[in-house]
Amino acid sequence: MTGAPTLETIRQAPKALLHDHLDGGLRPATVLDIAGQVGYDGLPATDVDALAAWFHATSYRGSLERYLEPFSHTVAVMQTPEALHRVAFECVEDLAADSVVYAEVRFAPELHIARGLSFDEVVDAVLAGFADGEKACAADGRRITVRCLVTAMRHAALSREIAELAIRFRDKGVVGFDIAGAEAGYPPSRHLDAFEYMRNNNARFTIHAGEAFGLPSIHEAIAFCGADRLGHGVRIVDDVGVDDRGGFKLGRLASILRDKRIPLELCPSSNVHSGVVGSIAEHPFDLLARARFRVTVNTDNRLMSDTSMSREMHRLVEAFGYGWSDLERFTINAMKSAFIAFDERLAIIDEVIKPRFAVLIG
Question: Is 140 annotated as a binding residue?
C-alpha cells in the first residue's frame, strides 16, 4: 500500500496502546443503559447522540481539572460487577475493531466501591471482562491482548493499598501501577511508599507527570519515584531547545529521560482538550520524536476526546506529514515499553506488528 496514510488505511494497521482510561472510554449507549438499570438519574442527556456530544463538548474546557469533571457520570455507572464486566468487555471489542493488538487499560479501583464492592471484587470484574472480550474477539479472528494497570488517585491516601492490589493480581492480568488526577499540589513524592513497595516487589509502574504541571513533576517522578514510564510527560519540552542549525539542546532532565529511554505516553487530542497545548499542530510530539525521545501515541480517554488510536495517528499524519515508517516506529516504541514480559513483547513485534506494517509500507 503506497501513499500517505489515510484514516481508513490507518485503521488496518496494528497498534499498541499504553495509556487508556477505562472510565474515559465507555460507549454513550452503555452509559445510558446502565444508568437506567441502576437508577442513576444524574446524566445531562437521555439521548445517545446528545450524551456523546455533551461529553465531547464538556471535556474541551481548557484545563485538566475541568476536563476531569465529566468522569463523575461514567464512574457513577461503574459500581456493580455486571457493569464493570460489561464496560471492560466492550472496551476490548472497541479496541480490537480499531486494530489494536496490545493495550494496557488503566482504572482506579477506589472510584468503584460506592455500592459496597471491595477492591478485589472490582479488579476481578474488570479482569473477567477483559478476558472474555479477548476470547470473543479471537473467535472473530481479531486477536488482541489487553492487560490492566491499577491507578491510585494522587489527591487521596490509598496509593499503598492500590500498589498492594497490583501485586496481588500481578499474575492474573494486572501488569502495573499508576497514579492519576490533578497534578498541581499533589506531587508524586507524596506516594513514595507505594512506589517503594512496587520496586521491592520487582514490579513496574508509570506516573502521570508533566501534563498540566511542568518539569518539577517530571523530575520527582523520575529522580525520587523511579517511574518506568511517564503518563503524558509532554512538558519535558520545556527542557528542550533548538539551536540555529536545527540541532537539539537538551537540559539535564531531558537528557536523562532520553538517555534512559523512559517512554512518554503522549496523548495529543487529550492535551488539546485539557488546555496543555492549543492544537495538534502545536503539540511537541513531533519535536520530541525528531529529538529521538521514546514517544508513543495514546488515546487517554476515547469517549471524552471523541478519539481512537486510528484518529490519533491520523491527526499526527495531517499535522506533521508522517508516513508508514513513522507510524511503525511509534507502534514499536509502545510495544517495547509495555509492561508484559520481554518474550511476549518481542513476539507481538516480530509476528504481528512488523509483518502487517510490511504489507502497508509495500
Answer: no
Model confidence pLDDT, tens digit, residues 196-237: 999 999 999 999 999 978 899 999 999 999 999 999 999 999
Whether the full predicted model's pTM is greater than 0.85, yes or no, is yes
Identify the active-site residue in 93, 134, 211, 312: 211
pLDDT tens-place string over residues 237-292: 999 999 888 899 999 999 999 999 999 999 999 999 989 999 999 999 999 999 99
Q: Is 23 annotated as a binding residue?
A: yes
Domain boundaries, the chain: 7-361
208 is in an annotated binding site: yes
Query: What does the block give as the cell for 205?
Result: 509502574
91-140 pLDDT, tens per residue?
Answer: 999 999 999 999 999 999 999 999 999 999 999 999 999 999 999 999 99
**Architecture (CATH level 2) of domain 7-361:** Alpha-Beta Barrel (3.20)
- Pick from 306, 297, 302: nearest CA to 335: 297
Q: Can 351 be counted among the known catalytic residues?
A: no
User: Contact 12/360 with Cβ under 8 angstroms?
Assistant: yes
- Beta-carbon contacts of 8 under 8 Å, excluding residues fewer than 6 positions away, are none
Q: Which amino acid is at 273?
A: H
